[in-house]
Structures are given as C-alpha cells and as structure tokens.
C-alpha cells in the first residue's frame, strides 16, 4: 500500500479570525467542474488565484504540494522532453555493465530458468514466480529504457534498482522482517533465485518489457510492451528507506509501506522521490468502482528476502501487450484515497 499524506487548503491569512478566513474562500470554485464543494480539496494557483479541485486536475493530485503551486495555464504545462535515444547515454544513465553483448541479445540464463521451472508453472497452487522475459529486439529494449529515463528525468529522480539507506534516515539494521505485525511471508529459495536472476539481467541491460508513457489524465503510467505471464516478477519497489514517523507530514506521492510494525515507531516506508525505478510510475486502481477494480493486473507483496523486508510487484494474471499496469494501493492498510482515480 502506498502511503500518501493529505494537507489542508492553501494557507489562510495570518492574524485573521477563522470566520474571516473562511469567508475569504467562500466564493472560490473549481475552474474545471464549476463547484465550490469539497473546499478542503480546492487548490489555489499562486499566480492567478484560480481554484482547482485536486481530483479535477489532470493528472490528479493526491495532496496539496509543498511550496508554491501553479495551475496548468500559468505553468505552461508541456509534454516532457524525451531522453536521447543514444545507446551510450542510456547505458550510462542506468549504469549498465558495459559489454558488447549486454544489450544485443537476451541472456541464456533466462532460457535455462524457464526450462528448469516450466513443469512447475502448470499448477498455480505452487505459486512459483517467473522471471520477466525481455524483448528480443535490442532496439526495442533501448526504446523501453529511454521511456523510463524520460520519466525519471522529468520527475527529478535518480535511477536506483535497490533499497537505499541514507544518512539521517533509517539504517539498514532496522529493516527486520521479524518486526512485521502478524509476521511476514518468507520468499522461498527458488523464488529468491528468480528475483536475483531478474536483477542480474537488468544489470546487463536485459529489461522487463515495459514502456513508460505520458497520459494527460494519469500522468506517467506503465504499459506492457509484450505479453506477460501470470506470476511474472515485474519489478521491485525501491527507493530511500525511512521511518514512517519521519514522513507522516510528507506530501510525497509515491511512498510505499516496507515494514508495518507492532510498534509504530519502528514502521518503515520506501520513498522513491529522490531515487527509484519504474515501480513509482505504475498507477493504482480506483477501489470505489467495479470498473476500477477490474483494471488490477498486479499484486504488491511484502516478503522476507534473506532476512530483509522487500516489496515486489507481481503479475496476478496474464497481461496482454499494450495493457496498462495497475495494482491496489490499499492492499494492506486501506488508507490511500483512490475514489477520484480514473
């Protein structure tokens, strides 16, 4: 479940009574829907003073952003510039191991893994996870990586494919699955090998067949660029690890629960706003509509992996090429506001 905080409306004038301050905002209405209802979710542009509901904006905003905010007209919102389709630049951006074959052809490891596990996939009861299957065309893989580099650059995020532990945040030593409230399921040895295989492939430039696209309603979102089988590991949710107590008033829009401890002071979250991967661009479903729930094709699962809490996004059914990826942001704590998701 991705935790996101909600803040109040734009700051009220200082040294004014509550009644006077409320009166100043009584005639504010949303430029998109024309309604003045839900005043707590009306956001005022710091340049033109026009109002917009958070949920009427496209892409939707989940919380009032920190600092100044400008509406689409005043900010002259544009489609993000594409990252250069240059192999050397892409290799450097993602710190891919340099090799003449690293981005030319898929590794034989995945073929060996498929042969070894193919007889076990027939029965879903065994729940054996599958490694992703990279696109065979090296040019297409470059396009996929460029799409992610474009999204990360536009959001000011440094690429990282691992959990990161920074000074003044939670240290690695506190990431203990034993603290999970109710216990945490352990990733089996075979599934851990599959996860490690996925990591090795990515280090060599063999990436999941995913494309990040920009949608005017949803913002950056992720599509399957080829058929993906049920139970395939899509990606790990990564970023800076911090204590939840340090982030309760944070307006970060992509925080993910890592450890839900009995003692709240020990609970941890993943914060991908500074460092992250493709996981931060995968959207959530609208839990309040049947159509929204039908979109879900991934599940978000917390695992104990070799004594460390990790979060994986896994296909929970077969996914067709061109289908957008969605999972339930409220898979655990049911605190995320999704009623306005498209």
Write up what this structure looks like.
With 342 residues, this protein is of the alpha+beta class. It is 19% helix and 18% strand. It is built from seven helices and 15 strands. The protein has helices at residues 18-24, 72-75, 87-93, 108-117, 138-154, 189-203, 290-294, and strands at 2-3, 42-44, 51-53, 158-159, 210-215, 219-224, 233-236, 240-243, 255-259, 268-271, 275-276, 283-284, 298-305, 308-315, 326-327. Strands 1-9-10-8 form a four-stranded antiparallel beta sheet, with no helix packed on it. A three-stranded antiparallel beta sheet has the order 7-14-13, with helices on one face. The longest helix has 17 residues, at 138-154. The chain is globular, with a radius of gyration of 22 Å. One of its GO terms (molecular function) is histone H3K27 monomethyltransferase activity. One of its GO terms (biological process) is regulation of DNA replication. Keywords: Chromatin regulator, Metal-binding, Methyltransferase, Nucleus, S-adenosyl-L-methionine, Transferase, Zinc, Zinc-finger. Residues 112-123 have a biased composition (Basic residues). Residues 208-330 form the SET domain.
């Amino acid at each position: 479940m991705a935790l996101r905080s909600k803040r109040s409306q734009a700051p009220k004038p200082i040294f004014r009574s509550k009644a006077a301050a409320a009166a100043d905002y009584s005639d504010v209405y949303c430029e998109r829907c024309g309604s003045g209802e839900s005043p707590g979710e009306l956001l005022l542009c710091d340049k033109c003073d026009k109002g917009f509901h958070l949920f009427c904006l496209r892409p939707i905003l989940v919380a009032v952003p920190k600092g100044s905010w400008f509406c689409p007209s005043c900010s002259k919102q544009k489609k993000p510039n594409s990252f250069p389709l240059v192999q050397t630049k892409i290799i450097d951006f993602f710190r891919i191991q340099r090799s003449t074959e690293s981005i030319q052809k898929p590794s034989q490891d995945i073929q060996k893994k498929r042969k070894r596990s193919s007889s076990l996939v027939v029965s879903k009861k065994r729940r054996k996870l599958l490694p992703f299957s990279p696109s065979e065309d090296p040019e297409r893989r470059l396009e996929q990586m460029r799409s992610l580099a474009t999204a990360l650059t536009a959001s000011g995020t440094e690429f990282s494919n691992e959990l990161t532990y920074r000074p003044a945040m939670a240290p690695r030593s506190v990431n203990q699955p034993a603290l999970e409230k109710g216990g945490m399921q352990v990733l089996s040895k075979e599934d851990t090998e599959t996860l490690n295989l996925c990591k090795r492939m990515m280090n060599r430039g063999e990436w999941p067949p995913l494309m990040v696209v920009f949608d005017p309603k949803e913002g950056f979102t992720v599509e399957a660029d080829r058929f993906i089988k049920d139970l395939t590991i899509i990606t790990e949710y990564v970023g800076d690890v911090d204590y939840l107590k340090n982030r309760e008033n944070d307006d970060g829009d992509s925080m993910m629960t890592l450890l839900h401890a009995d003692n709240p002071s020990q609970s941890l979250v993943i914060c991908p706003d500074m460092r992250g991967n493709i996981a931060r661009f995968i959207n959530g479903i609208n839990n309040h509509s049947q159509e929204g729930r039908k979109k879900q094709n991934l599940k978000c699962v917390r695992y104990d992996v070799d004594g460390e809490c990790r979060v994986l996004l896994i296909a929970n059914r077969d996914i067709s090429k061109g289908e957008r990826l969605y999972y339930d942001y409220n898979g655990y704590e049911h605190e995320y506001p999704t009623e306005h998701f498209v």
